[in-house]
Amino acid sequence: MSEETTTSEIDAEAHAAQGRGHVRFGCYALLVFIALGFALEVFHAMRFGFYLSNETEPRRLMWTLAHAHGSLIAVIHIAFGAAWAQLTADPRLATATLCLRGAMVALPGGFFLGGLWVIPPDPGIGIALVPIGGLLLVAAIALVARQTR
Ligand code: HEM
Fold first, then answer.
1. Which of 132, 136, 129 is nearest to 113 (CA)?
2. CB of 77 closer than 6 A to ligand 1?
3. Burial letters 73-87, b for 16+ CB under 10 A, else e
4. What are the beta bridge partners of residue 141?
5. 112 C-alpha vs ligand 1 centroid, how far in Å?
6. Does the pLDDT at position 2 exceed 80?
7. How does residue 67 score in pLDDT terms, banded at 50, 70 and 90?
């Protein structure tokens, strides 16, 4: 076996491992955000005032958005991991992975923190993380799209 073949096999293995990493990260993140969905369900069942009262209305919106965006970005991680073998191996994909992980934390995390400390009728300062997470998500998707050529 030539040295060149060995190197490309190692690259292919690293590429496949990157894809599996996305599926793993996405599954654990989905568990976290589905657990948040169950928590919201409990807040309704118990009629908790800190979640359902008029004064804390922004909290309900923010935590619902954290749950929904977190679940959706986790599914994007899993979808990217499943499609990883279709992408051309490239160092830029490592940047895409970092951006998507950053988006997974900043976007739903910003909504969650924005609801943790509310300044009615506005969410708290944590909401500032949301546009950063949005930009990271756009960057990750654009980088992955490039590697489908
Ligand atoms: C992939 C999985 C899931 C996705 C993508 C998802 C997405 C969403 C979305 C988009 C909303 C907002 C609906 C609206 O306000 O119009 C929502 C709300 C909600 N979800 Fe999920 N969901 C998922 C799983 C779950 C699970 C497993 C539970 C727990 C039983 C759950 C509990 C809730 C609750 C209680 C709300 C309403 C929160 C409120 O309005 O106070 N979700 N979800």
1. 129
2. no
3. bbebbbebbeebeeb
4. none
5. 14
6. no
7. very high
